[in-house]
Batch of 2 targets.
Target 1
Amino acid sequence: MRTSKYLLATLRDSPKSCSVISHKLMLRAGLVRCISSGLYVWLPTGLRVLKKIENIIREEMCKIGALEILMPIVQPADLWEKSGRLIKYGKELLYFRNRNNKGFVLGPTHEELVSKVFSKDIISHNRFPLIVYQIHTKYRDEARPRSGVIRAREFLMKDGYSFHINKESLQKTYNEMHEAYINIFNRIGLKFCVVQANPGKIGGMLSHEFQAYSETGEDTIALPIEFNNNFSNLKLSSCIKFTSIPFKEIFINETIRLVEDSSISSLEELISKFNLSVNSIVKTVLLQISTRYVKSPNSFLGIVIRANSKISDKKIKMILERYGYVLLSYVNVEEIYKLTGAQPNFLGPINLSVPLIIDYNAAVLDNFIAGSDVSGKYFFNMNWNKDILLPIIKDLCEESDVNFHNGGKSMPIMQNCTEIGHIFQLGQKYSNFIYDTVKKSSKNNISIEMGCYGIGITRIVAVLIEQNYDKNGILWPTIIAPFKLVIIPINMHSSVEVKKVAESVYEKLLQMPIIGMDILIDDRQEYLGTIFTDMELIGIPHMLVISDKGLTKGEVEYRDRKSKNVRKVKLNMLVDFLNKEIFYL
Amino acid sequence: MRTSKYLLATLRDSPKSCSVISHKLMLRAGLVRCISSGLYVWLPTGLRVLKKIENIIREEMCKIGALEILMPIVQPADLWEKSGRLIKYGKELLYFRNRNNKGFVLGPTHEELVSKVFSKDIISHNRFPLIVYQIHTKYRDEARPRSGVIRAREFLMKDGYSFHINKESLQKTYNEMHEAYINIFNRIGLKFCVVQANPGKIGGMLSHEFQAYSETGEDTIALPIEFNNNFSNLKLSSCIKFTSIPFKEIFINETIRLVEDSSISSLEELISKFNLSVNSIVKTVLLQISTRYVKSPNSFLGIVIRANSKISDKKIKMILERYGYVLLSYVNVEEIYKLTGAQPNFLGPINLSVPLIIDYNAAVLDNFIAGSDVSGKYFFNMNWNKDILLPIIKDLCEESDVNFHNGGKSMPIMQNCTEIGHIFQLGQKYSNFIYDTVKKSSKNNISIEMGCYGIGITRIVAVLIEQNYDKNGILWPTIIAPFKLVIIPINMHSSVEVKKVAESVYEKLLQMPIIGMDILIDDRQEYLGTIFTDMELIGIPHMLVISDKGLTKGEVEYRDRKSKNVRKVKLNMLVDFLNKEIFYL
């Protein structure tokens, strides 16, 4: 492809409105444009990346025998009414009536529809297990779309479904799908981990989430101590998603008790009186906040941190902003007394009926001490998820405080993550759709087990960028890059020789099978600075710089975008060099 | 692919509800399933065909420098309000409000959105002409979805858009796109023609439709006399779409006049008195009809045929059915007199305020004679589209009457067609979206010309089937077939030798680049009859039958699905034979 015939659509400056790095780079590098809150147009460069992810998914789905299909986005609402999800799914399900006053929804997922459609065919063809999937547009009516394509209204998903005549067959496919997901994310080059998801949500059956490391991720995962920044080490279930499953039992070894001592009026007195470590105490701070846009009645938020930590104003504000709120003030002593009847030291999470956010360091504690919201009374031996459900966990304190220690014990590493995949064993939850269809047949006594398997394709692009960028732009893994290699001819429009060689190299590479599609030549009449800035921003991993100077020695210059390594390559060795050292990637 | 691992989803019997052959075959061959009126699931076999059409389109778009993008299906309604189409587009535009009460539409097309999104990038990068396209789902809230995927609510389209700084550039891209469409439809193997579409609809600019021959098509095209059943002969503008553009001026050479002669009371008297040819007279028949499902108040329909033609009850009923109506009765003499005050002989299209359908043979007449709806008065020298707008044209009469003669003059051939592509020169119709965006820049005095270009991808599958089937099923062109070749081992599960050879042939073909993806082996434990029935129904163009009998002679049998030709091929020559005679297709 020639840049003169392409639409780079790069932006010199970051759009002011976006705070998330991946969103900023996706706009600047010309991957997407926002048309309305949560609705994005994928430009040529962005679509090239999407298609490569799609193809890796297709190949891995094919390997485990999953068949590709295409289901409508618009679904009859009566299917959702029957499954009970028309109400249960909540406001994210977009419902509308068509011109004939019939109810429809825009599909955020397809369990009902796929069960209804396939039941007859799988049974009449006795086709078990059947694994189908589609790669198609989904819609969720998000209240507050944010973080660019990560939490958009319309997005691209791979959603797969499997049908089985027994649990063993379901478990086998579930395992194969699990393996396929690991292959997919590894091939894409993602740093990710697998966590067992809350089983309560889907009725006691198995479910796993695939979580990718992402600075701005909304989930918090505790990585195991042996993690050592090596994601490929991570084994199934060795990670914990903080917000959805309880801590391991090992943390909880004592029973909570209420300790009363009216002589205590400060933290220092508490520590000295009971001979405690300051590391075992949490304090609770009350904030007054307001929604950002609509001046709604002010509301309160509780922040729980370790007693010796210092709240970071900046972090608090950033977190509130992400949820659409602003910080009005820290509630002072008089107001706390007016609201709770207690001194500020005795504030604690258990009896405080306001939303809570917990700092990492406080979240990893066990058998800790907290206020009881009654002056002179403390809870001792408190444990999250036993005495109080662990609320949202965030990094709330000054950097120097983030140490994750717990009285000398090794602690897990806390990591912000974004969910990129989710697999479920659904059991017979949607079976009534299947049995209704075949009620008239003689086979209505069979029991069909079902699994479902999702991958968020569009958000993978954003997460990949969060994992791979530098100050100049994106650092794509070669396999996913919109173009693998760019030829940059220096002064092409004035040097006959450079133009001749550049065009001949381009033509030669263009002829290479598959690779040919991924070669770019920057033939614009632009400043050299603009060309390099654009190519680094877009993140093309490999560059060939062709200049008069190099050509006098019969050389071109190869540059690696990520390592910034430069190598001189003899022209007659070029294709060989590229094949051996670059294109095998 | 092995049929045992695939989902054929073939049906033994035709579903009763569908009358259109392509719809019937698409259901029976397991290409699609209907989930709700106008909403279809594409099963593996159907999706394979769709993807092949998509890829041909992508290749041809790439050749003319069009860049692929992806736009959201959900569009902000304010864009449509601004263009005036929120109202103008009519009820087929699905409008909804989201949870924040903001208005959106499900995009049936994307002119507004693409103009708004791209204006800034094309102008700032000075990137003219820019041609972009997407292949994505569209939604039209059809009142009466019908003919399977041909008139569905949700469907797949290629929609392309181009931006230019002058009319010459637009015309150049328009011509290239026109050529690309011809290449696409030729490669797919469609019989089609190009007609100039009604220019009035888009304000005097140019527009062409690509119309494919289709028994059940809703459009009627007059093919030129030299057509001779050879679609590849057809040149641009040599066809006329009856329902959208006027007859050529040449037909109209006299002025209408009202002739009064109260002595005439019958057709015979009229002919003998004025020495007329019966071929120059039309008669009008009044029908009483009702909507099929809802018993609405009965309404009337006028039918205009040649005076010597005989209405076909069957055809009338079929046409009404397609529009959701049923025939109640032919209105009799007394009722006509009551309704119009005229004798039935004097009924005519001009003063009759009921919807009209015109028979082919009546539609091709010029300077003809018709009743005036006043007894004793006839209109002479009447011409369609001059004295009265030509209404819907259909084949309404008994077969023997369809002769298309007009007083010895050669007449065009009338052909039912389905629109598969449409290209428009839009001019500056959507320019306000572009100028708004760049109003602040210094370049706001440029004028941007725009073109748009659509292909209905899902309906192409149906139309292809209508052009290619026999009593056993579909006859796919090889390039589009879901699988190019099927290996049918006879008694594979009892003959060790057949199994061995079949598997080895399958493995060998599987390794072939590209072709390998399109090889099927029917390894089911099924009756041979079922296997052949399925494979012929699905329409796999090439079959290799491997049997013990053949193997004793070192042969396999090759069968051509369409011609039914059978050839014995030596096993050691098989790959060579396939490469030379089959796969080059």
Target 2
Amino acid sequence: MARLVMKFGGTSVADLDRIRNVAAHVKREVDAGHQVAVVVSAMAGKTNELVALCRGASALHDAREYDAVVASGEQVTSGLLAITLQAMGIDARSWQGWQLPIVTDGAHGAARIQSIDGSRVIEQMEAGRVAVIAGFQGIGPDGRVSTLGRGGSDTSAVAVAAAVKADRCDIYTDVDGVYTTDPRVVPKARRLDKVSFEEMLEMASLGSKVLQVRSVELAMVHKVRTFVRSSFEDPNNPKTMPNGDPFGTLICDEDEIVEQEVVTGIAYSKDEAQISIRRVPDQPGVAAAVFGPLAEANVNVDMIVQNISADGAETDITFTLPATDYERATAVLNDKKVEIGYKTFEGTTGMCKVSVIGVGMRSHAGVAAQAFKALSDKGINIRAITTSEIKISVLIDEAYTELAVRTLHSAYGLDKA
Amino acid sequence: MARLVMKFGGTSVADLDRIRNVAAHVKREVDAGHQVAVVVSAMAGKTNELVALCRGASALHDAREYDAVVASGEQVTSGLLAITLQAMGIDARSWQGWQLPIVTDGAHGAARIQSIDGSRVIEQMEAGRVAVIAGFQGIGPDGRVSTLGRGGSDTSAVAVAAAVKADRCDIYTDVDGVYTTDPRVVPKARRLDKVSFEEMLEMASLGSKVLQVRSVELAMVHKVRTFVRSSFEDPNNPKTMPNGDPFGTLICDEDEIVEQEVVTGIAYSKDEAQISIRRVPDQPGVAAAVFGPLAEANVNVDMIVQNISADGAETDITFTLPATDYERATAVLNDKKVEIGYKTFEGTTGMCKVSVIGVGMRSHAGVAAQAFKALSDKGINIRAITTSEIKISVLIDEAYTELAVRTLHSAYGLDKA
């Protein structure tokens, strides 16, 4: 007997047939004797429809009202799934965020979960009843409905799993696991049996869309074993691993992964932009003078490269940002030219960031050099580089994205046999 | 300065344009210096869509889950209207049933309001803020969302008006008031300036669709002056009465109506059925033996006629019921034949109940006789009669409905000049 949290996204609950399919997945686990809580998203398309209504009502809308409107999508799905489970003879009830409660901070529209009272869900589970919880939502300190921002249902599921001390949090989605890279770009991409929290966090941050970044952070902090699997399997006879385990990818503590590869995956994110500020005074406080105003303007600066200056007087600063923030960033720089004291700046959109990720890098030298050589062999120019303990990111022209990803995937031996 | 509750139904909030129109109505009252709370229904069609989803999930669904799903419609409208009002520069916020709270009993799907804490709405109103309240919903003793049954938003509005001691509850709808009868049947039907609570209650019970019966009951008990008016008027320049009052029908205490007519209106309801039970023992307890089992089977018995028997041994009982309950009723009667001890029964659907309503009947003799004569003159056969202090109802063949309504409308001098 295990305690499971099962999460189903929008495409998995898109209509009543899909909801019945979800209920069959839940029934399988209940019949196997597990204690089960379920977290659901809104039916596919519903959230977009509700967001469009809010925008239509006013471009600048009160985030608290937006939350009240948009949270209704998950409310509907949780009720419908509870009804469907009951019709299959499974004791179930729905819970909205405010009922549990899932307490968030007051940042309506992008709230963060502060606490979940797991006692009622545990009580329900122990009584053999399935708790069907509306994802993506909670209640703020003002007593009003809050939402966690897009993709927040993953975060709800992991938070619930932490609160009820679940043995595993199963994220059912439209793919059957986490891959070494995007299989649409590299057909030879391999599904990973296991991936560490740290690696998954980098992958999610760096472009993998399988899980929301915050849900991985939360899973890492609370050590919630999170399992990515497909909701499109036959619920009554899902594919299994050779050893009988469910088929998918387990995101878990590094210690649980016996044979750790040096590199686990290649991630990429397009629509990046790059700005270089030329001949900035090379003195303390200049970085703050540049990035303070950008932060205030909500420009999401990512990679920052500053070289030691040749003459000790002036230097260049290069940074990357999402292409959507580019116009705003250049406006800020023009505005602050005197304060910052730079001579010129230049920039461009149409960039891509490609990242090589693996906890094995910590103990292996030469991993970065291998990437640089592989890209150079294909004539791909590297515009900027950043590294962390477990990843190397390079900025390249967007046109080379697929070539670079395929090249690195092969270079690190990730291709499927 | 007055304190107003404004209620808008589904067709009045059918899309964003209609919601903007509603907001303009609200703005007009706020600009006139009134304190305003608004009660809204779900966007037209939305409740049906949600009900269909619940039914699709399971024909027999948990009423508590049904409520969680269906109540989301009003939640969306209240948020959207708050956003729209804010965009017009009007301070507003939405309230869901559980937030206020609107406390109901536990009869999920058809709950009754038990209490409303008006203090928060009054606080908001006095601070110049419009409270936009989701109609049709509340919170049950189990801490779960409850709904009041179809048309419940009228009831929500009147209950809120009672709780905040509003000067008037304006029900905005797709007609411009209460008419002496259905204008589709009698083009000469007249709009009433005022109608008493008692008369409106009979009209609503007897087929007028303008207001939900329970909302009128509640208005009568709490003496909430309720005003039926059109949401399709130009919000910035609505039609007024010659004396400058708003255009519509005021439902109020009898004392407020100076010139009371003898008959105020003619109501009708089609799809009635009639059942006659022949040769029942004429002894105490026989009515209970008949109507007890029917009540248990949720058969909604309306008119009951039992004559004094000629021989003192056996009698006949005739009653009417909605045609939709007919099959169920005959099944019960067949089942209980021995217990009731009747010889035969016969019944028919395709009946119509036509009612003449007016508080003036109390002090005027011969009102019923006038109806019987008028119908007889047209050759319309009366199958059953019931009367109360302020109404006469006759059961006739459905085919004669329009003729009977027109005939009675003229007979009591209700035709428009």
